[in-house]
Design brief:
The chain has helices spanning 3-19, 25-31; strands at 34-37, 47-55, 61-67, 72-79, 82-93, 96-101, 104-113, 118-126, 131-138. The protein has one domain: Lipocalin (Beta Barrel), CATH 2.40.128. Strand 4 (72-79) and strand 5 (82-93) form a beta hairpin. The protein contains two helices and nine strands; from the N terminus they run ααβββββββββ. The longest helix is centred in the N-terminal third of the chain and has 17 residues, at 3-19.
């Protein structure tokens, strides 16, 4: 993989975090049983979220996602090779988040555990047909 394709992939990954929200089985186990939370308004999820993104065949990556009240978002990936970023727009549909980013599209689901902790799971398909998943927690 060339440095430029790796950089594009990192950017796509960051966008995908917003596009689709998904927790791996390990993530679910670490926060205990979770219950999906229907989102009625984008303002319910606006703010800053931090977590991890997983790309098929790649190492995990730490990301920060900032969602604004109008549904626009920015995501920053902090890879060992440097920082990459992406942006896009999120809308609420049937209680879930539909993400449309610069390099892909996906779906996000908001979950809550028994302790009241809120987690967002993202699943995305990138423009190169690769997939990624992410888990982010609100930091406000």
């Amino acid at each position: 993989m060339t440095p430029s394709s790796r950089k594009r992939l990192c950017r796509s990954l960051a966008v995908a975090v917003i596009v689709g929200l998904s927790i791996s089985l390990v993530g679910c186990a670490s926060i205990g049983p979770v219950t999906p939370v229907a989102v009625s308004d984008i303002k319910a999820v606006s703010g800053t979220w931090e977590g991890t993104v997983y790309l098929t065949g790649s190492e995990r990556d730490d990301v920060t996602l900032t969602i604004r009240d109008d549904g626009s978002y920015d995501v920053v990936s902090k890879r060992g090779l440097g920082v990459s970023s992406g942006k896009g727009h999120i809308v609420v549909s049937d209680g879930r988040l539909v993400i449309d980013g610069e390099r892909g599209r996906g779906v996000g689901t908001v979950l809550r555990n028994r302790a009241g902790d809120v987690l967002m799971k993202v699943d995305m398909t990138l423009s190169d047909n690769s997939n990624l998943s992410a888990e982010v927690w609100r930091t406000r």
